[in-house]
Amino acid sequence: xxxxxxxxxxxxxxxxxxxxxxxxxxxxxxxxxxxxxxxxxxxxxxxxxxxxxxxxxxxxxxxxxxxxxxxxxxxxxxxxxxxxxxxxxxxxxxxxxxxxxxxxxxxxxxxxxxxxxxxxxxxxxxxxxxxxxxxxxxxxxxxxxxxxxxxxxxxxxxxxxxxxxxxxxxxxxxxxxxxxxxxxxxxxxxxxxxxxxxxxxxxxxxxxxxxxxxxxxxxxxxxxxxxxxxxxxxxxxxxxxxxxxxxxxxxxxxxxxxxxxxxxxxxxxxxxxxxxxxxxxxxxxxxxxxxxxxxxxxxxxxxxxxxxxxxxxxxxxxxxxxxxxxxxxxxxxxxxxxxxxxxxxxxxxxxxxxxxxxxxxxxxxxxxxxxxxxxxxxxxxxxxxxxxxxxxxxxxxxxxxxxxxxxxxxxxxxxxxxxxxxxxxxxxxxxxxxxxxxxxxxxxxxxxxxxxxxxxxxxxxxxxxxxxxxxxxxxxxxxxxxxx
Length: 484
Ligand code: BLG
Hints:
Layout: H1 11-25, H2 33-40, E1 42-47, E2 55-57, E3 60-62, H3 64-76, E4 79-84, H4 88-96, E5 103-109, H5 112-115, E6 118-120, E7 125-127, E8 129-134, E9 152-154, H6 158-167, E10 176-178, H7 183-191, E11 198-201, H8 202-208, E12 215-220, E13 225-232, H9 238-252, H10 255-265, H11 271-284, H12 286-300, H13 304-315, H14 335-340, H15 349-366, H16 375-386, H17 388-400, H18 408-414, H19 421-424, H20 434-454
Parallel strand pairs: 1-4, 1-5, 9-10
Antiparallel strand pairs: 2-3, 5-13, 6-13, 7-13, 8-11, 8-12
Helix pairs in contact: 12-13, 12-15, 13-20, 15-16, 16-17, 16-20, 17-18
The structure holds ligand BLG.
């Protein structure tokens, strides 16, 4: 049979023509953004340095955005490389750069202007923009009430965009934008009275309220909006599709919910007055004992900030503290504990801190090997407060309920039962005020988070005692009456 000549071409000719064809059709393996990330094994993400997004803590990098985006990178099986932008304009400029980061994860709202600069993912968090004022000062309740006040917002922020939009019908409304500040600076400026008002998102305020006890929400500036990640604008949506798929899964399997609880869940624990008091004590009391906490931390291998957080929960950093039950000192040691730890004077702050640290480390070491971090730390805190025997009762109750006795979330649900007869009569060690222990652990964790943030490496210019730079200015007056 006669074959068409084309089939009889030499194989090399074939390859050559294929090459030429590909070259001219312009489809020489231009990889998609997703393929590029996978091939290079690195996902480059641009974010901002703030407590609600990304910062350094005791274990390295952390923050809501960081944790979420780290899970995404893990999911793709690639390394995560974070870079921080100086301000929002810089962030979008970097995203736009050829060879720049593939993704921005920085608590961004897909405002109309930004939609021309980048493509946005599915939402992962709902936030409300809020007008912030200083407690005791005039409180506006509408844009009209903001006229004539000193207003400063982040340059390039969606808040600036919203204000400009309002200006079209209310030209008397004047405001300034700055690219030299972060959200924390805006809040501090309101707190210290350098400006009258600012606009921030509700999640940012929730994270920062404790450092700025004088700031209050004046009113919600519009409806809730969604935070989204962004990828460079353009036709290539491969990475964005992977992001959306990941976020959908994170929503379904509870990952998102857990992260939200962790970062924003305990922020209301302190309330305004508690936040005010904590900030004051941070400046006035902690510096006296910080050296002891650091030393005890080094000696026991326990993060000094956790010890300090415990000390705050126990006594508000007061060495003379004494409870109704005769428990005493800065770390609230019982007589038995003090004796066992070689503490001769419980009211001596240094002895109390070292005794408490040693006791805590001992408890933690003695916990079942099945309890993993971070739960292990929360269990040790609970045992410090209620005793290892009652904690083991609560773990057994958890097991009997089909819950996980090695997970703090599960065991903390059982602890309050130790105060109810129908439950404690079935336990080995009987009645205990387990509800208080849950409260204890929750508060210590909150204080620990705060101490972690204020002592993070990039802010820490030495000891809190010396720096004070990043701490709120404390009004010497008592907290003003709640106006709202
Ligand atoms: C803790 C002890 C545990 C002890 C439990 O009580 O004290 N911890 C310390 O001394 C550091 O050792 O466990 S046990 O030895 O296995 O029995 C249970 O007895 C302390 C707690 C008690 C609590 N603060 C540290 O968290 C406290 O002060 N309670 C009194 C509250 S009230 O104001 O008098 O009502």
